[in-house]
Design a protein that fits this description.
Distance between the termini: 45 Å
Largest sheet: 2 strands, antiparallel
Number of helices: 14
Low-confidence stretches: none
Radius of gyration: 21 Å
Helix content: 25-40%
Mean pLDDT: 95
Structural class: mainly alpha
Length: about 375
């Protein structure tokens, strides 16, 4: 009865079990061949200038599709995960923001917890929807491009490589029976930026984790959470006020907020050493998108600059309720940023609840792991 009451309160507060069926654009409906193609492309180094990094380099399956680093290190680096080296030669550098997990992207909302095909993407909210953002790394020198070719020709260069690969020509033909550009059945009509982005998005849209303990609990299983997790949920929706921004099926409002987290990165090109976040795109300076919390226990470090090493660090920061970046004064903070008065025990209970957001069942599926090989024959980063 106690757990049933807590469940009702959690649902009323805005939490929700997660669906395994994300919304899909009308031009990119569920298609097994397209998903299989995107699976290969995600792990394919031929998408990078030097052919030695792939999307999976910074989004490793064994690290919940993040990389375990404060800042990702793309083209020009060696190794994987926390052991990866810094990129070289100059002017290559680390990426300016922490690498987020690729899980549940298809369930993101647009300034709302409700899933949308035009969801708020990136820490700074600078893209809307998977198809809008998925090719951006190909053109970025410190992500996939490196120094191999100019930014202006990066996508065309990758497409040219794919078009001379018999394996990819056959797979794009299966995934896109009708060339989007019309015309003859030629590789240049079938392997395009449109089909490449649709294939990658189709794969990523399948990486959902709807079977965490919190889902079982919200669906009616009174025993899905242990005592500490239940107490942590009570704090999450109550005294700690986490649900103010962390709501809905992914525990995020997908809006942009000013928290005053520390800035340790190099900043974006327009603001070196000082990351304005949404402010770079005409929005509120130093505002960053609320991160979703599913699988969060598996994806340290945290915040846009990777400045919190553990979940305990995150909750203690929220508990202090003050800016830790000199350029964000008290008046610039979101109004809900305030000292929470949590005890050490209560901080630990909130962290216990966050562990109840980890799905260890669905992630055993084939799509959550690297394929045995990719058509290029190159080594898969995994």
């Amino acid at each position: 009865e106690v757990n049933a009451t807590l469940r009702d309160r959690a649902l009323e507060a805005g939490l929700a079990p997660m669906s395994s069926d994300p919304p899909r654009p009308i031009d990119n409906e569920h298609d097994a061949d397209r998903i299989a193609l995107g699976h290969l492309l995600f792990f394919e180094p031929v998408l990078s200038g030097p052919k030695d990094v792939a999307c999976s380099t910074c989004h490793l399956p064994r690290l919940a599709f993040a990389d375990g680093r404060q800042f990702p290190s793309g083209a020009g680096a060696e190794g994987l995960g926390p052991d990866r080296t810094l990129p070289h030669p100059a002017p290559l550098r680390e990426m300016p923001r922490n690498s987020p997990s690729m899980l549940n992207l298809g369930m993101f909302g647009r300034m709302s917890p409700e899933p949308s095909t035009r969801a708020t993407m990136f820490w700074s909210g600078s893209a809307f929807g998977l198809e809008d953002q998925v090719l951006n790394p190909i053109s970025a020198d410190n992500e996939l491009r490196g120094l191999t070719y100019a930014k202006a020709v990066a996508r065309d260069s990758v497409l040219a490589r794919l078009r001379i690969s018999p394996g990819y020509v056959a797979r794009f033909r299966a995934a896109f029976p009708q060339p989007p550009n019309g015309g003859d059945d030629l590789p240049e009509n079938r392997i395009t930026t449109v089909t490449l982005r649709r294939a990658l998005a189709a794969y990523l849209r399948e990486l959902n984790t709807p079977n965490a303990p919190i889902d079982a609990f919200l669906r009616g299983d009174d025993d899905a959470l242990d005592d500490d997790q239940s107490a942590g949920l009570e704090l999450f929706i109550g005294k700690a006020g986490c649900v103010t921004c962390h709501m809905g099926p992914l525990l995020s409002d997908f809006s942009l907020h000013v928290l005053g987290t520390a800035q340790e990165g190099i900043g974006r090109d327009t603001t070196p050493g000082d990351d304005l976040g949404w402010g770079e795109h005409g929005g509120t300076p130093y505002a960053f998108r609320t991160p979703p919390l599913r699988q969060v226990a598996l994806t340290p470090p945290y915040f846009h600059a990777g400045t919190a090493a553990t979940l305990e660090d995150v909750v203690w920061f929220k508990n202090r309720g003050r800016s830790e970046y000199a350029r964000v004064g008290p008046s610039a903070l979101d109004p809900y940023v305030r000292p929470l008065g949590l005890s050490e025990r209560e901080v630990g209970l909130v962290v216990s609840f966050l562990h109840a957001l980890t799905d260890t069942v669905t992630t055993r599926g084939t799509l959550f792991h690297a394929p045995p090989a990719v058509p290029s024959g190159l080594t898969i980063p995994k």
